[in-house]
């Protein structure tokens, strides 16, 4: 068991097809797809691995896709704990259209998780020895798992002194933050919901994030602003860091890459300002690659140096 645990409740086998142009009612012949193990926490673990760090993946797998997912993660040399399901692990399909540089993303629902499996997940986390020093819960909740699940993980973690990072959306995010987390990475819309405001403007971000911190909901808020970079807000600091201007090929996995960089930076003892910069560097570096592939270490390091000038 590594000191970083990532949790992926709705993993996917990602398949990326590249073609010149998507046309209806035509037989489109394309090269074999790029196939990757995907899902929030899995991508975070892959990113940490690329930076030279180690983590353990906890996930749910089932059927032939589940076996393929295990094989793909094994090739990455990442430690993995799985709870096996009878239902098939989902597929996620990305179609990259080269003539327009647009992407079409098809994401299926995936399996329905039983109450027994939900409780087994919580028991597995609670029984971990040694208990991880950082836990990252990332990605959507599958059908069958209630919105309060990430919050229930938070209750297990609370007495352990573990840093809990949650990267999700909707009611799952609201309930996780209500219980309390160490770091949360909302976008502008998600921060609006967390602060109970219909629509936040960029000028309101620091105040809304600071309010969450004052209420004891989290220690660090990193507001993801897409091409405009991100804003770091803590009890004592607030800083807007612009993203480097890069030629984007794909945004798939950019958010997960950002989380990977930040978590790795935390483990390395980076300051908050260094931590957010390596996160933005990894997220921006991921957009340089086509399809479902994450960043390269070389690109992330180059962009980190640029951001640290």
Tags for this entry?
about 300 residues; alpha/beta; UDP-N-acetylmuramoyl-L-alanine:D-glutamate ligase; 9-stranded mixed β-sheet; 10 helices; globular
Outline:
By secondary structure, the chain is an alpha/beta fold.
How are the SSEs ordered, and which strands pair?
Layout: E1 4-8, E2 12-19, E3 34-38, H1 40-50, E4 56-62, H2 63-75, E5 79-85, E6 90-97, E7 102-107, H3 115-126, E8 134-138, H4 149-157, E9 163-167, H5 170-179, E10 183-184, H6 188-194, H7 205-214, E11 220-224, E12 230-234, E13 238-241, H8 254-267, H9 272-286, H10 297-307
Parallel strand pairs: 1-4, 1-8, 2-6, 4-5, 8-9, 9-10, 10-11
Antiparallel strand pairs: 2-3, 6-7, 11-12, 12-13
